[in-house]
Amino acid sequence: MKDVLRIVNLCVGVDGRVILKNVNLYIQKGQTFALFGPNGSGKSTLLMTIAGSSKYKIYDGRIMFKGVDITEKATDERVKMGLGIMYQHPPKITGVKLKEILKHCAKLGGTEDKIYEYVKMLNMENLLDRDVNVGFSGGEAKKSELLQLLLMNPEFLMLDEPDSGVDLESIAVIGEVINDLLDGKSGIIITHTGQILKFVDVDYGVVMYKGRIACIGDPREILKTVEKYGYEECARRCLRTL
Known about the structure:
The protein is of the alpha/beta class. The chain is 36% helix and 30% strand. A six-stranded mixed β-sheet has the order 6-9-10-3-11-12, with helices on both faces. It has a four-stranded antiparallel β-sheet with strand order 2-1-4-5, covered by helices on one side. A two-stranded antiparallel ribbon has the order 7-8.
């Protein structure tokens, strides 16, 4: 089976400071990875670099998506190829109604007939005429991002802390939707608490530590080790076994 995403010896920096160091990651079609690590370890940087954010400078390495080198491609080109991202802190867009951006996403994904089905599924009917994410609660902003992804129907999903700032009831709903999104597809989910793992099927866990990948293994076993020993000791234990 071919890798849908292949990251090779990736080194990335921001404002002259190196953040990612020789990162290698291979994800096959249908696989979902959970990404763990302390604040500042490079998790969000990795996702934003894959998405093509101009803020992050690639010093070395390559990003391959569906067999195509996308290292130098613009974000919109990557989106058209099937990459989708859910931000840790979804941007607020004043002057643009949620229903307007949903129609745009639906055109990209060919899902115009699904808009109100998905809106109802996430109980977002009362937010359609409001500016995107303006005055939304944490859970509403996350659902807004998921709605957009559902309609864009990407082949590869990158979800940055979908369980952050969300109540337990909403996490269950979000988890169910994420499972639907990932059905037959691939993705990366960043999580600190691991709450989302109660509701989403994940194949592998990855620990990032100081800009490097320390280990890859069973996500729930990794989470147990982190809870018991902390990230630094977890990284040491993993690296000793490599």
